[in-house]
Design brief:
The chain has 310 residues and is an alpha/beta fold. 42% of the residues lie in helices and 14% in strands. A four-stranded antiparallel sheet has the order 2-6-5-4. The two termini are 19 Å apart.
Length: 310
């Protein structure tokens, strides 16, 4: 939260009280002030990014981490992330559930916070995880307990279900012998998806002048995110949040990419950052050309604080 936010959120307070509240906030979250004007160090390939990148990530609800490829994040939990089309045409066949007029039951909400020492318990009970795949949209909808229900089966146990929003399709999540355990695992799984979505909502900020020294690139900036980050911060809110914290002269492009495109972009971005860190000018030129060419797949739709309709 910067100065303009103090006025926005505490506008009904006196100036001394607004300053007091802002000071209290910055005391609790000092990184917001410490990182505000920092640029990334091109000689350190592990440097997360500029201060604006850090602030925008935190205020959008993302979890800023040192640069880490998304595939590493998902493999930590023993699964791959599929795009929706691939998942629904092939990977989900084994866990589809067909309703036969069974009465479904809602699941009570519990206040449960996921921690990594609980993942083994989830893995044991959630067939979605054991099959080794999740799909992109699940990172948006899978954290909502209202999308889950359960039925009593003929084998005298309970089946946890996930009803896919917008589709006549239900997935089997896991079998349980007790409703108390089912409710706990369902709530824990929702909390896990929130956690996963947050740490996997990477934000890449690319200044085009570093890729191409042409006049057209001098004021251009791209902010690139994976598609599922829309479940953390809606695009309109993210654009407003970012534009209010970036220099007014910049022309900004926003991209939300599917998993395969974002993973490919990460590879090119990390090679470029490594070339910068090693001061290998030939590789800098090559990797910058590849990265710029990849970004040119999408028309550069310009946003800036002057033209944006709030």
């Amino acid at each position: 939260m910067c100065g303009e936010d103090s006025r926005k959120y505490y506008g009904d307070k006196t100036l001394p009280l607004r300053n007091q509240l802002r000071t209290s906030l910055l005391t609790r979250y000092p990184v917001i002030n410490q990182e505000r004007f920092r640029s990334f160090n091109i000689l350190n390939k592990q440097d997360y990014g500029a201060g604006a990148q850090e602030i925008i990530s935190r205020m959008a609800g993302f979890h800023p981490l040192p640069i880490n490829r998304l595939c590493n994040i998902f493999s930590r939990y023993h699964f791959q992330l599929k795009d929706d089309t691939t998942f629904f045409t092939s990977a989900c066949q084994a866990i589809r559930f067909t309703h036969s007029n069974q009465l479904t039951h809602t699941i009570p909400l519990q206040d449960i916070v996921y921690r990594d020492n609980l993942y083994e318990l989830l893995y044991q009970h959630v067939s979605l995880l054991r099959q080794g795949y999740l799909y992109e949209s699940f990172l948006i909808y899978g954290s909502n307990l209202h999308n889950y229900s359960f039925v009593y089966t003929e084998k005298e146990n309970y089946l946890l279900l996930f009803d896919i929003p917008g589709q006549q399709l239900t997935l089997s999540v896991g079998h349980f012998t007790e409703t108390e355990q089912l409710a706990y695992i369902a709530n824990l799984f929702c909390s896990f998806i929130c956690h996963l979505r947050s740490i996997a909502s990477s934000l890449l900020m690319i200044e085009h002048i570093l890729l191409d020294h042409s006049p057209a690139s001098s004021h251009r900036l791209s902010l690139i995110l994976p598609r599922w980050s829309k479940g953390v911060c809606k695009p309109e809110k993210f654009r407003e949040l970012a534009l209010k914290r970036l220099p007014a002269h910049l022309e900004v492009q926003f991209l939300w990419l599917k998993e395969t495109d974002f993973t490919q972009l990460e590879k090119l971005y990390l090679k470029w950052r490594q070339a910068l860190a090693e001061q290998d000018q030939a590789m800098v030129c090559t990797s910058a050309t590849l990265l710029s060419g990849f970004l040119h797949q999408w028309p550069f739709k310009i946003y800036n604080i002057h033209a944006y309709n709030w």
